[in-house]
Amino acid sequence: MSNYRRSYVNGGTWFFTVNLQNRQSDLLIRHIQMLRDAVRTVNRQKPFRINAWVILPEHMHCIWTLPEDDSDYSGRWRDIKKTFTKGINAVGIWQPRFWEHTIRNEEDYRRHMDYIYINPVKHGWVRLVKEWPYSTFHRDVRNGLYPGNWAGEVDNMDAGERK
User: How far is CA 143 from CA 4, 137, 140, 147, in A?
Assistant: First the structure.
Protein backbone atom coordinates (compact mmCIF):
# COMPACT_ATOMS: atom_id res chain seq x y z
CA MET A 1 0.00 0.00 0.00
CA SER A 2 1.27 3.43 -0.93
CA ASN A 3 2.07 6.07 1.67
CA TYR A 4 0.89 8.80 -0.69
CA ARG A 5 -0.81 11.69 1.07
CA ARG A 6 -3.12 14.06 -0.70
CA SER A 7 -2.91 17.80 -0.18
CA TYR A 8 -6.12 19.23 1.30
CA VAL A 9 -6.35 23.01 1.59
CA ASN A 10 -9.63 24.80 2.30
CA GLY A 11 -10.51 26.94 -0.70
CA GLY A 12 -7.64 25.45 -2.69
CA THR A 13 -7.24 25.09 -6.42
CA TRP A 14 -6.21 21.74 -7.90
CA PHE A 15 -5.34 20.19 -11.23
CA PHE A 16 -6.73 16.66 -11.72
CA THR A 17 -6.29 13.79 -14.12
CA VAL A 18 -8.93 11.06 -13.99
CA ASN A 19 -8.68 7.92 -16.14
CA LEU A 20 -10.93 5.10 -17.20
CA GLN A 21 -9.72 1.59 -16.49
CA ASN A 22 -9.77 0.78 -20.22
CA ARG A 23 -7.42 3.29 -21.86
CA GLN A 24 -8.76 2.27 -25.31
CA SER A 25 -12.36 3.22 -24.46
CA ASP A 26 -14.38 6.14 -25.81
CA LEU A 27 -16.87 5.97 -22.95
CA LEU A 28 -16.44 9.55 -21.72
CA ILE A 29 -17.24 11.22 -25.03
CA ARG A 30 -19.75 8.55 -26.07
CA HIS A 31 -21.72 9.37 -22.91
CA ILE A 32 -20.72 13.02 -22.68
CA GLN A 33 -24.17 14.23 -21.66
CA MET A 34 -24.33 11.72 -18.80
CA LEU A 35 -20.90 12.89 -17.62
CA ARG A 36 -21.98 16.52 -17.79
CA ASP A 37 -25.14 15.67 -15.86
CA ALA A 38 -23.12 13.83 -13.19
CA VAL A 39 -20.79 16.82 -12.76
CA ARG A 40 -23.73 19.24 -12.63
CA THR A 41 -25.54 17.10 -10.03
CA VAL A 42 -22.50 16.85 -7.77
CA ASN A 43 -21.69 20.54 -8.21
CA ARG A 44 -25.20 21.45 -7.03
CA GLN A 45 -24.80 19.30 -3.91
CA LYS A 46 -21.16 20.14 -3.20
CA PRO A 47 -20.25 23.34 -5.07
CA PHE A 48 -16.91 23.92 -6.76
CA ARG A 49 -15.72 26.25 -9.48
CA ILE A 50 -14.65 24.69 -12.75
CA ASN A 51 -11.64 26.72 -13.84
CA ALA A 52 -10.91 24.46 -16.84
CA TRP A 53 -11.89 21.02 -18.10
CA VAL A 54 -11.13 18.83 -21.08
CA ILE A 55 -12.71 15.45 -21.65
CA LEU A 56 -11.02 12.96 -23.93
CA PRO A 57 -12.38 9.52 -24.82
CA GLU A 58 -10.75 7.69 -21.90
CA HIS A 59 -9.44 10.37 -19.54
CA MET A 60 -10.00 13.94 -18.46
CA HIS A 61 -8.07 16.83 -16.98
CA CYS A 62 -9.50 19.72 -15.04
CA ILE A 63 -8.80 22.49 -12.56
CA TRP A 64 -11.22 23.15 -9.73
CA THR A 65 -11.37 25.71 -6.95
CA LEU A 66 -13.30 24.74 -3.83
CA PRO A 67 -15.18 27.06 -1.45
CA GLU A 68 -13.13 28.78 1.26
CA ASP A 69 -14.31 26.40 3.99
CA ASP A 70 -14.00 23.17 2.00
CA SER A 71 -11.22 20.87 0.79
CA ASP A 72 -13.13 17.67 -0.02
CA TYR A 73 -12.32 17.17 -3.68
CA SER A 74 -12.00 13.40 -3.11
CA GLY A 75 -15.65 13.17 -2.10
CA ARG A 76 -16.66 15.11 -5.17
CA TRP A 77 -14.70 12.79 -7.46
CA ARG A 78 -16.18 9.75 -5.74
CA ASP A 79 -19.68 11.13 -6.30
CA ILE A 80 -19.04 12.11 -9.93
CA LYS A 81 -17.62 8.68 -10.73
CA LYS A 82 -20.47 6.91 -8.93
CA THR A 83 -23.19 9.05 -10.54
CA PHE A 84 -21.75 8.61 -14.04
CA THR A 85 -21.25 4.86 -13.57
CA LYS A 86 -24.84 4.39 -12.40
CA GLY A 87 -26.12 6.63 -15.18
CA ILE A 88 -24.64 4.46 -17.90
CA ASN A 89 -25.43 1.23 -16.01
CA ALA A 90 -21.83 0.05 -15.83
CA VAL A 91 -19.38 -1.28 -13.24
CA GLY A 92 -15.62 -1.08 -12.75
CA ILE A 93 -14.96 1.50 -15.42
CA TRP A 94 -12.68 3.89 -13.51
CA GLN A 95 -9.10 3.58 -12.43
CA PRO A 96 -9.37 3.45 -8.63
CA ARG A 97 -7.48 6.67 -7.96
CA PHE A 98 -6.85 9.98 -9.65
CA TRP A 99 -3.91 12.34 -9.95
CA GLU A 100 -4.11 15.68 -8.19
CA HIS A 101 -1.72 18.59 -7.99
CA THR A 102 -2.22 21.62 -5.77
CA ILE A 103 -1.87 24.80 -7.81
CA ARG A 104 0.85 26.86 -6.16
CA ASN A 105 0.83 30.21 -7.95
CA GLU A 106 -0.29 32.08 -11.08
CA GLU A 107 2.46 30.62 -13.28
CA ASP A 108 1.59 27.08 -12.14
CA TYR A 109 -2.08 27.82 -12.83
CA ARG A 110 -1.42 29.13 -16.35
CA ARG A 111 0.87 26.18 -17.17
CA HIS A 112 -1.82 23.68 -16.14
CA MET A 113 -4.54 25.60 -18.02
CA ASP A 114 -2.43 25.43 -21.17
CA TYR A 115 -1.74 21.73 -20.60
CA ILE A 116 -5.46 21.02 -20.34
CA TYR A 117 -6.31 22.88 -23.52
CA ILE A 118 -3.49 21.47 -25.66
CA ASN A 119 -4.21 17.87 -24.57
CA PRO A 120 -6.54 16.86 -27.45
CA VAL A 121 -3.88 18.10 -29.89
CA LYS A 122 -1.12 16.30 -28.00
CA HIS A 123 -3.05 13.03 -28.26
CA GLY A 124 -3.73 13.51 -31.98
CA TRP A 125 -7.51 13.95 -31.79
CA VAL A 126 -7.43 17.36 -33.51
CA ARG A 127 -4.89 19.71 -35.07
CA LEU A 128 -6.29 22.89 -33.52
CA VAL A 129 -7.31 23.38 -29.90
CA LYS A 130 -10.53 25.07 -30.99
CA GLU A 131 -11.61 21.94 -32.91
CA TRP A 132 -12.07 19.82 -29.77
CA PRO A 133 -15.69 20.19 -28.60
CA TYR A 134 -15.35 18.72 -25.08
CA SER A 135 -13.44 21.54 -23.44
CA THR A 136 -14.01 24.72 -21.48
CA PHE A 137 -11.58 26.32 -23.93
CA HIS A 138 -14.60 27.60 -25.87
CA ARG A 139 -16.00 29.26 -22.72
CA ASP A 140 -12.62 30.87 -22.05
CA VAL A 141 -12.43 32.17 -25.63
CA ARG A 142 -15.91 33.72 -25.23
CA ASN A 143 -14.76 35.29 -21.94
CA GLY A 144 -11.61 36.74 -23.54
CA LEU A 145 -9.15 34.61 -21.56
CA TYR A 146 -7.74 32.84 -24.64
CA PRO A 147 -7.71 33.87 -28.30
CA GLY A 148 -9.68 31.53 -30.57
CA ASN A 149 -6.54 30.59 -32.50
CA TRP A 150 -4.48 29.89 -29.35
CA ALA A 151 -1.58 27.47 -29.97
CA GLY A 152 -2.14 27.64 -33.73
CA GLU A 153 -1.91 24.48 -35.77
CA VAL A 154 0.31 21.82 -34.33
CA ASP A 155 1.65 19.31 -36.87
CA ASN A 156 4.28 17.39 -34.97
CA MET A 157 3.72 16.53 -31.36
CA ASP A 158 5.72 13.34 -30.97
CA ALA A 159 4.82 13.01 -27.28
CA GLY A 160 1.24 11.98 -27.85
CA GLU A 161 -0.25 9.67 -30.40
CA ARG A 162 -3.88 8.78 -30.67
CA LYS A 163 -4.53 5.73 -28.53
Answer: 37, 10, 5, 10
Question: Catalytic: which of 73, 117, 134, 146?
Answer: 134
Nearest to 25 by CA among 70, 65, 61, 57: 57
Residue 7 region by backbone torsions, left for phi larger than 0, else alpha for psi between -120 and 50, else beta: beta
State how far the Cα of 22 lies from the Cα of 26, in Å rounded to an integer.
Answer: 9
The pairing of strands 13-19 and 49-55 is: unpaired
Q: What is the pTM of this model?
A: 0.90
Q: What confidence score (pLDDT) does residue 140 get? A: 98
* 153 confidence band (pLDDT: 50, 70, 90): low
Q: For the chain, first and last CA: distance in Å?
A: 29
Task: Calculate the CA 151 to chain-centre distance.
Answer: 19
Give the burial string for 23-34 (b: 16+ CB within 10 Å, else e).
Answer: eebebbbebeeb
Active site residue 109: no
d(CA 92, CA 25): 13
Render pLDDT for 107-116 as a digit per residue (tens, 0 to 9).
Answer: 999 999 999 9
- In the chain, the amino acid numbered 147 is P
pLDDT at 4: 61
